């Protein structure tokens, strides 16, 4: 497409000119007098019925002491791009919307374009709120502290600079002492491993009276290391965690309790995988989670979790989102550093491989995902297990998924040699209530705002058919 600022295309600045006039507090007559033209010509310019000539552009810049570049830069291209994104919403799928028409609308009627964008934004927000309200149902307030804690973490992209830098210093101290147990011993704390029956269901317990850190002796090596690091975080990073939370007022004390636990786990991961060392290894190993786990003595889930936190200014790595769920689809952990629109309530999309990995445990499955608005992501999913280290002891198997925006996937070993535009992505939705893909055979409920079409004589492959509009 040619640059609209070149002489080959007339320059229309109607809404921009009208906005300028109003900002200056001028009538059309006053602007006409300033520019030495007729009021009717000003009106024609503002209605985009006349293009702005080079001479008129110079007059405007000289008269009102403006930069020509600021005047001549059009909103049209930006509006065309944003309108194109909005009009890919499947709710418009049955309407023929040629790209040229969208471009003409954006270029010629930027005011209308802005109105449409605001209207769709309000619609999307209301749809989200309504879906959450319907899916939440009775008792939804019981989980409100969890959601509040998730919002706190997401707002900071799951990166906490004071904790990370202090944890890096602690990791260096621990290395000098010869390990975490030795570091604790130097501070009068002894680490002991005891049988599960003695621990009475606890994986970690601090005996303050005897200054002993007691651990379940059936913990595997990564879990044992993480529990020791978590104790160190709770003690050595206590002041830093309080400082992070001091800036926020929470609706519930439960939220604060959950965040203290989450930030201690964050600190533990940062101690086991110090930022600088880990960030360098991440690039060298091309985000190979299993290789990184072997290098740092961490589990698959621990490494995946740590990858969501690598947003130190000047040393950023690929921004990831992370989710952990069980076979019933219940989400037990959710972290977002990549702008993925998780559903606040209800199940996710069954077409996402994170819901399918239970059939082939410990096998990594990769998948390209495309949301209804056209956003593309790359996902890595695998099962992880905890507990069950002993005969008759119940274990838990969950699925975890780590994902990033499609443009970052080339940096991952899992997508080596694959160009995002050259692969077929799986069309998924955030949740059925918000997904308007009418051809989806995996749909469980109709989307909000669509009427179900009643047809007694035909049954399609999809569970619902929808009326047009």
TrEMBL record:
PROSITE patterns named among the record's database cross-references: HTH_CROC1
UniProt key word Transcription regulation: yes
Keyword Calcium: no
Pfam families assigned to the protein according to its UniProt record, in alphabetical order: HTH_3, Peptidase_M78, ScfRs
Domain of life: Bacteria
Keyword terms of this UniProt record: DNA-binding, Transcription, Transcription regulation
Residues of the HTH cro/C1-type domain: 17-71
Assigned protein family: Belongs to the short-chain fatty acyl-CoA assimilation regulator (ScfR) family.
PANTHER family assigned to the protein according to its UniProt record, in alphabetical order: HTH-TYPE TRANSCRIPTIONAL REGULATOR (PTHR46797), HTH-TYPE TRANSCRIPTIONAL REGULATOR SUTR (PTHR46797:SF23)
Name recorded for this polypeptide: Short-chain fatty acyl-CoA regulator family protein
């Amino acid at each position: 497409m040619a640059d609209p600022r070149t002489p080959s295309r007339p320059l229309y600045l109607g809404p921009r000119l009208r906005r300028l006039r109003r900002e200056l507090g001028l009538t059309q007559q006053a602007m006409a007098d300033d520019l030495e033209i007729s009021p009717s010509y000003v009106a024609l310019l503002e209605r985009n019925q006349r293009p702005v000539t080079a001479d008129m552009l110079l007059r405007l810049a000289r008269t009102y002491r403006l930069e020509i570049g600021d005047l001549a830069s059009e909103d049209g291209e930006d509006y065309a791009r944003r309108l194109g994104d909005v009009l890919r919403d499947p709710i418009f799928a049955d309407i023929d919307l040629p790209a040229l028409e969208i471009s003409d609308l954006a270029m010629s009627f930027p005011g209308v374009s802005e109105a449409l964008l605001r209207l769709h934004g309000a619609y999307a927000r209301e749809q989200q709120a309504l879906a959450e309200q319907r899916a939440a149902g009775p008792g939804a307030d019981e989980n409100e502290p969890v959601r509040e804690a998730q919002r706190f973490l997401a707002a900071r992209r799951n990166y906490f600079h004071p904790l990370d830098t202090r944890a890096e210093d602690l990791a260096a101290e621990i290395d000098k002492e010869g390990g975490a147990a030795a570091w604790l011993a130097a501070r009068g704390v002894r680490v002991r491993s005891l049988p599960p029956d003695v621990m009475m269901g606890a994986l970690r317990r601090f005996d303050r009276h005897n200054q002993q850190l007691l651990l379940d002796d059936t913990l595997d090596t990564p879990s044992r290391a993480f529990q020791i690091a978590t104790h160190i975080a709770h003690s050595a990073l206590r002041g830093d965690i309080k400082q992070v939370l001091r800036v926020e007022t929470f609706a519930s004390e439960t939220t604060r309790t959950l965040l203290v636990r989450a930030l201690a786990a964050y600190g533990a991961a940062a101690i086991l995988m110090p930022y600088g060392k880990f960030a360098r290894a991440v690039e060298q190993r091309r985000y190979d989670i299993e290789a990184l786990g072997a290098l740092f003595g961490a589990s698959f889930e621990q490494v995946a979790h740590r990858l969501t936190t690598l947003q130190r200014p000047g040393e950023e790595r690929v921004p990831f989102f992370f989710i952990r769920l069980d076979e019933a689809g219940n989400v037990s952990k959710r972290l977002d550093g990549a702008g993925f629109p998780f559903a606040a309530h209800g199940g996710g999309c069954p077409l996402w491989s994170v819901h399918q990995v239970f059939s082939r445990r410990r096998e990594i499955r990769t998948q390209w995902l495309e949301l209804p608005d056209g956003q593309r992501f790359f996902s890595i999913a695998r099962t992880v297990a905890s507990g069950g280290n002993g005969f008759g002891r119940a274990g838990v198997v969950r699925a975890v998924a780590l994902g990033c925006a499609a443009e970052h996937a080339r940096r991952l070993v899992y997508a080596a040699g694959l160009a995002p535009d050259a692969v077929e992505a799986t069309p998924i939705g955030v949740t059925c209530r918000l997904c308007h893909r009418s051809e989806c055979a995996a749909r469980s409920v109709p989307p909000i705002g669509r009427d179900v079409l009643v047809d007694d004589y035909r049954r399609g492959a999809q569970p619902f058919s929808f009326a047009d509009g």
